[in-house]
Amino acid sequence: MSHALFENIYVEKNAASDAVTLRILERLGCSDPEYIVHYKDVFDLRKEGCASGRSLILARNPGKHLYEGAPVCQSFGNEHFYYSPGVMNCIYDCEYCFLKGMYPGRDICIFTDIEETFAEIEKLEKDFPVYVCASYNTDLNALESITGFVSEWCREALEHENISVELRTKCSRTDIYKNLPVSQRAIFAFTLSPDEVTERFEKGTPGLSERIGAVNAAMEAGFPVRLCFDPMIYFRNWEDSYTAMIDKVASSVDLSKVRDISIGSFRISDQYLKNMRKKFPESEVVQYPYVCVSGYYQYPDKVRIRMEDHIKGLIAGKCPGALIYDWR
Amino acid sequence: METCNKTEIPDVLASDLVLSESMKNRLRQICIYAALTGIDLDEMRDKLTAEGKLPCSDKNSSKKVLSEIYDYVACSF
Ligand code: SF4
After folding, report:
1. How far is CA A16 from the centre of its chain?
2. Which residues contact A118 (CB under 8 A, 6 or more apart)?
3. Using an 8 Å Cβ cutoff, are A82 and A34 in contact?
4. Which of A64, A77, A221, A311 can pair with A177 through a Cys bridge, CB separation 3.0 to 4.6 Å?
5. pLDDT digits (tens, 9 = 90+) for A66-102
C-alpha cells in the first residue's frame, strides 16, 4: 500500500504483531501492508536511483542493538559511548550523508523491537553510565509522528539515572518537546548549517530559521540542548556563510543556556566515500579530493584547521564561556 | 578552457607529468572536483609552465607539481 510519505509499506512477518508495528501502521492509516520474510529482501535490493520514492519496512533487528561509537564520532567526554541502529535511513537527503555509502537505497527500515535495545542498555547501566546516540542512522525527531521513539528514549533516560541519550536532529518541529518526558539526560543535539549549505547539500531539510525555532522550543521545554556545527562543508563562500550563520544563531538563541557546542568539518569512512563517489558523480561535496587518514577521508589540514578555527573564533566571540567539543 | 570530462585527466596535463598509478588517481579526483566547481585548471597549467615547472621530466618533480595543483584546486576557497 502506498502512503503520502512512502511508496510502499512492508512488514516482516515475524514483526507483524509487535506493538510498535501495530502502532505505526495505525498512525499511517495502513491496514494492508505487504508482508515479507526478511527486511533485506526489500532493503538490500532497491538500489539508489532505481526508484524515485522510498518505502517503509517494519522489521525485527536480527543483529546487534548497540554498537560502540566510531572514532570520528564525538563522545563528549563519555567513556561508554554507544549508538543504536534502531532505524536505518532517513527521510532527509543530505548529499554528504554517510548513510548513502552504507545502505544500498533510500528505503527506511524501522526496527520494532526497541524494547530489546532498552533491555541491553539496562544491563550495561548496572555496571557503568551509558551514553547512547539514538538518532545515529536516521533523524528520529523527523519520524516522531510515525514511531514515537523520541518519546520512548526520553522516558528511558528519565527512568534510569545511568542512561543518557543524545537525539541529533535537523528537524524543525516545535510541537513535540512540551509533550516529552523531560530530564537532563535526554539531550537534543541540533545540527545547524548555513542556508547555502542546506539549499545545496541538505535536500529536504528545514532552513536555519526553522531549526533555530526548534532549538528554542526544546530549551523552553527544559531539555539540555547541544548545537552542532558539524559537519562543516567546504565550498566557495563557506567563510561568509558560516559567519552569517553564527551571527544569526547568536542573535536568536540564548547561547548561555546551551549545554555545549560541537564543531567538526566533514569526514567519512573511506569505504562509504568510495561507494558514494560511484553513486553521485556530480556531487561537489562527495567528489572533493579528500585526504585519507587512518581509514577516514577528511579535508586536508590546511582547509580543516582553517574552517574549524574560524567557527571556534566566531563562537568564542559571541559566547566566550561556551563549552566547545571538537571532534579531534 | 579545457574541461575534464569527469573521468579523464586532460591529455595536455597528463603528458606534462610523470605519474604513478596512485598519482594519476589523485590527479583524476582533482580534475573531477575542478570541473564540478568551475575551477580553471588551464590557468594553473599556464602558470606552472611560465614558472618552468611544467613539463616535468621525473616523478619527483611531478609530485611537487601535483601538490601545487592540489592546493590550487582543493584549498583555494
Ligand atoms: S539528517 Fe542526518 S541522517 Fe538524515 S540524511 Fe541528513 S545527515 Fe543523514
Report:
1. 27
2. A152, A156
3. no
4. A221
5. 999 877 677 788 888 999 999 999 999 999 999 999 9
Cβ atoms of A146 and A24 closer than 8 Å = yes
Q: Which of A18-27, A42-51, B10-19 ranks highest by mean pLDDT?
A: A18-27
The pLDDT value given to residue B3: 45
- Atom number in ligand 1 closest to CA A135: 3
**Which ipTM value was assigned to this complex?**
0.93
CA distance A250 to A242: 12
Q: Which of B26, B36, B77 minimises the CB distance to A282? A: B36
Does pLDDT of A1 surpass 80? no
Q: What is the mean pLDDT of residues B11-16?
A: 86
Smallest Cβ–Cβ distance between B26 and the set A282, A288, A289 belongs to A289
Topology adopted by domain A9-326: pyruvate-formate lyase- activating enzyme (3.80.30)
CA of A296 to the centre of ligand 1 (A): 19
List C-alpha distances in Å: B51 to A268, B26, B27, B56: 37, 23, 20, 12
Does the Cβ of A139 fall within 6 Å of ligand 1? Answer: yes
Q: How confident is the model at residue B2 (pLDDT cuts 50, 70, 90)?
A: very low
> From the candidates A288, A302, A306, which should be mutated to test the interface with B, based on the most B CB atoms within 10 A?
A288
Q: How far apart are CA A201 and CA A44, in angstroms?
A: 25
Q: b/e per residue, A93-121, with b = 16+ CB within 10 A?
A: ebbbbbbbbbbbbbbbbbbbbbeebbebb
Q: What type of residue sits at position A3?
A: H
One-letter amino acid for residue A238 of the chain: W
Q: Touching check for A274 and chain B: CB below 8 Å?
A: no
Helix (H, G, I), strand (E, B) or coil at A35: strand
The three cell numbers of residue A128 are: 557503568
Q: How much is the average pLDDT of A274-298?
A: 97
DSSP H helical segments within A125-206, as ranges?
144-147, 149-159, 195-201
A288 with B33: Cβ contact below 8 A: yes
Looking up cell 582543493 gives: B74
Q: How far is A219 from A258, CA to CA, in rounded Å?
A: 8
Q: How far apart are CA A46 and CA A108, in angstroms?
A: 11
Report CA A217 to chain centroid distance, whole Å.
18
